[in-house]
Automatic annotation (TrEMBL):
Any one cellular-component term (Gene Ontology): adherens junction
UniProt record, GO biological process: protein localization to plasma membrane; protein maturation; protein-containing complex assembly
UniProt record similarity statement: Belongs to the tetraspanin (TM4SF) family.
Stated name of the protein: Tetraspanin
GO MF, any single term: enzyme binding
InterPro entries recorded: Tetraspanin/Peripherin (IPR018499), Tetraspanin_animals (IPR000301), Tetraspanin_CS (IPR018503), Tetraspanin_EC2_sf (IPR008952)
Species: Drosophila gunungcola (fruit fly)
Cell compartments where the protein resides: Cell junction, Adherens junction; Cell membrane; Cytoplasm; Membrane
Gene3D superfamilies to which the protein is assigned, alphabetical: Tetraspanin
Disulfide feature: 173-191
TM ranges: 32-56, 76-102, 114-137, 254-275
PROSITE patterns: TM4_1
Membrane topology: Multi-pass membrane protein
Length: 290
C-alpha cells in the first residue's frame, strides 16, 4: 500500500504532513532550563543596576551634582559606576537569553551564546595570567593601583568603605610591600599635612579599633604610627600591604578557589551547550515547516 495519503475528493497530501500536529523538535526541557537560569540572572542584574544607580545618585547629591571622570581610574575606582556597568551587561545578556529561549529566536540565542563565550575566554585568560605569572600580577597591581587608590581614599566614600572593609577583613594596611607606609602618599596622612591625621593611617588598619566596653570605633587609633618602626607600629596596627596578604590567602585556599572557578567555567560551558542545542532544534523545526 502506498504511504501517500489522499483527502476526500482525491486531493494529494505530502508525506511530511503525516506528522502529528503537536510534534516539535524543540525540547521543552532545554528551552525552559535556559529561560529559568537567565531569568534568575536577569533579576540579579536588575538588582545590581538598581543599587548602583541609587548609590551613584546619592554620590551626585553629596558632590553637588558633580562626579570626576578625568581618567579611566576614576571609572574603575567608582564602585557605584562599576555596579551600574556590570548590572547593565548582566541584565542585557540574560534578557537576550530569556527572550531568545522563550520566543525561540535564533538571533538572540546566537548573541547570548557569543557573549557567554567571550566572558569565558576573558575569565580563562585572566586566570592563566594570575596562576602562571603571580609575581608579575603583584608588581602590576602595586605599580598601577597603589598610588591611585591611596590618593583617592577620601575622595570617594564608596571606595573608602571598600578599602576599610578590605583592610579589616584581611588584617592589612596599605597595598604595596611598603605596607602602612603607603599612607604617606595620601594628602591627609602625609607627615607634612596640617591635618591632625598627619603621619597616621586609617582606623581600619588598627588591631583593636573598637572599644570592647563601649562598642565605639576609635578613629584616632592609627595616629602617628608612620613615625614609628615596624616593630613598634605592629603593636597597634597591621603593617603588611594588602596585595601580598591577599596573594598568600589565595595560595592557602588555592584548591577551593580553583574548584569554584572550575565549577563556574563548567556551568558556563553547559549553558553555552544548551543554547547551541536549542538553536539547532529551532533550525530543524524551521526546516520542517519549510
Amino acid at each position: 500500500m502506498s504511504n501517500h495519503r489522499y483527502h476526500q475528493g482525491g486531493n494529494y497530501m505530502h508525506p511530511r504532513m503525516s506528522y502529528p500536529h503537536h510534534f516539535t523538535y524543540v525540547s521543552s526541557c532545554v528551552k525552559y532550563m535556559i529561560f529559568l537560569l537567565n531569568f534568575l540572572f536577569w533579576l540579579f542584574g536588575g538588582l545590581l543596576l538598581a543599587i548602583g544607580v541609587y548609590a551613584f545618585m546619592d554620590k551626585l547629591k553629596d558632590g553637588n551634582g558633580w562626579v570626576r571622570f578625568d581618567t579611566v581610574y576614576d571609572v574603575i575606582f567608582n564602585i557605584s559606576l562599576v555596579m551600574i556597568i556590570a548590572g547593565v551587561v548582566i541584565f542585557s545578556v540574560s534578557f537576550a537569553g530569556c527572550l531568545g529561549a522563550l520566543r525561540e529566536n535564533t538571533c538572540l540565542l546566537k548573541f547570548y551564546s557569543m557573549c557567554l563565550l567571550m566572558f569565558f575566554i576573558l575569565e580563562m585568560t585572566l586566570a592563566i595570567i594570575c596562576f602562571v605569572f603571580p609575581q608579575y600580577m603583584n608588581s602590576f597591581l602595586e605599580y598601577q593601583f597603589t598610588d591611585k587608590i591611596i590618593h583617592s581614599y577620601r575622595d570617594d566614600s564608596d571606595l573608602q568603605n571598600f578599602i576599610d572593609f578590605a583592610q579589616q577583613e584581611f588584617k592589612c594596611c596599605g597595598l604595596s610591600n611598603a605596607g602602612y607606609q603607603d599612607w604617606s602618599k595620601n594628602e591627609y596622612f602625609n607627615c607634612s599635612s596640617p591635618s591632625v591625621e598627619k603621619c597616621g593611617v586609617p582606623y581600619s588598619c588598627c588591631i583593636n579599633a573598637t572599644d570592647i566596653s563601649s562598642g565605639l570605633v576609635n578613629i584616632m587609633c592609627g595616629y602617628g604610627v608612620q613615625e614609628q618602626s615596624v616593630a613598634a607600629a605592629s603593636k597597634r596596627i597591621w603593617t603588611s600591604g594588602c596585595i601580598e596578604i591577599v596573594r598568600v590567602w589565595v595560595e592557602r585556599n588555592l584548591y577551593v578557589i580553583a574548584g569554584v572557578a572550575l565549577g563556574i567555567a563548567l556551568l558556563q560551558l553547559f549553558v553555552i551547550y544548551l543554547a547551541k542545542t536549542l538553536e539547532g532544534q529551532i533550525d530543524l523545526q524551521k526546516s520542517r515547516w519549510s
